[in-house]
Specification:
The complex is a heterodimer of chains A (389) and B (257). In chain A, a hairpin with a 5-residue loop joins strand 1 and strand 2. The C terminus of chain A is likely disordered. The two termini of chain A are 40 Å apart. The radius of gyration of chain A is 29 Å and the shape is elongated. A two-stranded antiparallel sheet of chain A has the order 1-2. Chain A contains 19 helices and two strands. Chain A is mostly helical and 389 residues long. Chain B contains eleven helices and no strands. In chain B, helix 1 packs across helix 11 and helix 8 packs antiparallel against helix 11. The two termini of chain B are 27 Å apart. Classes of the chains: A mainly alpha (389), B mainly alpha (257). Chains A and B meet through helix 1, helix 10, helix 11, helix 12 and helix 14 of A and helix 1, helix 3, helix 4, helix 5 and helix 6 of B.
Chain lengths: 389, 257
């Protein structure tokens, strides 16, 4: 390596290291959180060790019962036991109560008799095989639950019952909202960018600044504006009533339309600016060339201008989709319960229910879905371009 | 001709749609009423007084400026060096460029939740330092892109000339390169500040009530009770954004978008 190249690497290194430490490593930690299963090992280490050595048939031998009884008793009230009961209760409801009752019980050997006497579930093989799976340190449970699957008592993968199968629907809804928003934004933005690209100097600058203003204003401010505008007693309803368009206030906020409207508002600059960049580079003499060859203005637009401007549409569309798929604040504030996207659940699991495994699993799947759609689009865009050549 | 008229009319509507919602908040922030009702009972500055006398809003304002300034300094320094490193390398090297665009393509909710898990392990959650680091990473791509664009017009032979005259590299960077790309560096810094100042999602995950920034405090306020103080805060936040945009236009303006 030459001295210049070494210098170049040294100059890039600090930024790259910061991105790796602050974003790449956390992403890897996040992926790991989706499959990590440390609770049983932390709360009941000896029991976990014995369970891993057990062959998993029927119920285990007395030493496992004894280890469990003693460790649960010793851990009563400890944070680790709380975490374990949350973890097990997530896999099967009722486990929290079972652990608490067991922790409080006065037990004497033989424990393989004493534990089932506290609760008959300690005599069931299904309880023990579940504990054994939880002792392995990694679990597919969170990822499976995120696609409405579950692990049955015998360890096989089964579908979640109808009433609990919410996540596939949630991902589909997220995808649908993101696509609706992307398409609407592109359709609204295209004619606007087209007009901007051919405005005379001073007007073009004014229009650009007006597009840049919302781009620079906090998304929280813009969402707040919509939150206020769409209230039942808000300005939009007041205007509609005053104009006698309606005779009673409309339900605007907490609807899908509100979500789409506010998201399009936030994302429009991301569509207009790249489109404008590409359209400004289209040679205006092409229009005269088309006309001299006998093309109508409409034909010129369809066959020459539109294909040449598509890269801007593609770039804007990708950017908008990637942003829209991860939207949290707008659906959370102006959407109803039926308009929430995956992000809402990720936030909920992280900050409210403290189920980090589910939060991480949903994040991993959301990233995978985003990558899949973007990958598909990138495969398609060169073909769109090739058609123009 | 009809096409031109129609698309221009459409552009007018789109610009109206973009700007009007933000303007509606302005009169509401001057209302004298308790709740946001229309028509307004009267005009007053009481919600601005409330903003500037409330401990929570003042703390959030301070946090926003502290985190924004620190982010701007850090992201500008790291981003400018990295951009110059890329320039020296010749063609833009793939791996660092890819890594530095990562913050743009990872949905912010995912970045936020990932940082939350990782920062919890290192004690960086609920600290201003953690927030600065996170915002620095989010702002880095913009600084790099802006400075890299400015470097396109930089004549490489100046480096050899300066070096042959005996200037050590740090001096070359400070006395030869930096003066020529100063507008881009300033623009990058302003954008980095704005990125941090406006950012909500990552702050939602990794900031505790002590580290609430203005957007985060607005969200907390909206969830509690829609007080007109939030409108006052929105207006003040918009003014800061407009100031940043004006400065950005002044130093970078037409060279940018």
């Amino acid at each position: 390596m030459t001295r210049t190249k070494a210098l170049a690497v040294a100059l890039m290194a600090p930024a790259v290291v910061v991105v790796i430490l602050v974003l790449v490593v956390p992403l890897l930690v996040g992926f790991a959180t989706a499959v990590r299963d440390p609770e049983l090992r932390v709360a009941l280490p000896r029991t976990a060790e014995l369970l891993r050595a057990w062959d998993g048939r029927g119920v285990p031998e007395e030493p496992v019962f004894a280890a469990l009884a003693q460790e649960v008793r010793a851990a009563e009230g400890a944070q680790a036991l709380g975490a374990l009961s949350r973890r097990l209760n997530f896999e099967r409801s009722g486990m929290r109560g079972l652990l608490l009752r067991t922790a409080r019980a006065e037990l004497v050997a033989p424990y393989s008799m004493a534990l089932p006497a506290v609760d008959p579930r300690w005599g069931e093989p299904a309880t023990w095989t579940m504990l054994r799976r939880a002792s392995l340190g990694v679990t597919p449970l969170y990822l499976l639950r995120s696609v409405d699957l579950d692990v049955a008592a015998d360890g096989s993968v089964v579908a979640q019952p109808e009433e609990e199968a919410v996540f596939v629907k949630l991902f589909r809804r997220t995808l649908v909202i993101a696509l609706e928003v992307t398409i609407t934004t592109l359709l609204v933005a295209y004619p606007a960018a087209y007009a901007m690209a051919r405005l005379p100097g001073a007007w073009a600058r004014l229009a650009t600044v007006l597009v840049l203003v919302p781009f620079w204003v906090s998304i929280m401010v813009r969402t707040t504006a919509w939150f206020i505008l769409l209230q039942r007693e808000g300005p939009v309803n007041a205007l509609l009533l005053a104009l006698q368009v309606v005779d009673h206030p409309l339900q605007l906020i907490f609807t899908r339309v509100a979500v789409i409207l506010a998201m399009v508002h936030v994302l429009l600059p991301f569509a207009i600016l790249p489109m404008l960049g590409v359209m400004k580079r289209i040679d205006p003499r092409l229009a005269r060339a088309s006309a001299s060859l006998g093309a109508t203005q409409w034909q010129h637009f369809l066959r020459v201008y539109l294909p040449l401007s598509l890269p801007g549409v593609g770039a804007g569309g990708l950017m908008i989709f990637m942003l829209a798929v991860g939207f949290y604040i707008t659906p959370a504030l102006v959407g109803g319960t039926g308009d929430q996207m995956v992000s809402t659940f990720i936030t909920e699991y992280t900050t409210a229910t403290l189920n980090w495994g589910m939060a991480a699993a949903l994040a991993v799947l959301l990233l995978a879905m985003t990558a899949a759609v973007v990958g598909l689009a990138v495969l398609l865009v060169p073909r769109l371009r090739a058609r123009t050549a | 001709m009809i096409g031109v008229v129609l698309t221009r009319a459409w552009l007018g509507l789109v610009l109206l749609f973009l700007i009007t919602p933000m303007l509606v908040v302005v009169p509401l922030s001057f209302s004298s009423g308790e709740v946001l009702t229309l028509p307004m009972p009267g005009l007053s500055l009481r919600w601005y007084v409330d903003f500037f006398t409330s401990g929570r809003w003042l703390a959030a304002t301070r946090n926003s400026f502290v985190v924004g300034a620190a982010t701007a300094v850090l992201a500008t320094a790291l981003g400018t060096l990295a951009a110059f490193g890329m320039f020296l390398w010749g063609r833009v090297p793939r791996l660092p460029a890819g890594l530095l665009t990562l913050p743009l393509v990872v949905p912010s909710v995912i970045a936020g939740v990932a940082m939350y898990f990782a920062f919890a392990l290192t004690g960086l959650t609920n600290t201003l330092a953690g927030l600065v680091l996170a915002h620095t990473v989010l702002a880095l791509p913009y600084v790099v892109v802006t400075v890299l664009a400015a470097l396109q017009g930089f004549d490489r032979t100046q480096l050899r000339a300066a070096t042959s005259l005996g200037a050590p590299f740090p001096v070359v960077l400070r006395r030869v390169v930096l003066p020529q790309i100063a507008p881009a560096v300033a623009a990058g810094g302003l954008f980095a500040f704005a990125t941090s100042f406006d950012e909500l999602i990552v702050a939602l995950f990794i900031a505790g009530p002590e580290q609430f920034t203005l957007p985060r405090q607005m969200l907390a306020g909206l969830r509690e009770f829609l007080s007109p103080t939030i409108c006052a805060a929105a207006v003040l936040l918009t003014l800061v954004s407009l100031l940043l945009l004006a400065l950005h236009q002044a130093v970078w303006g037409r060279k940018g978008h």
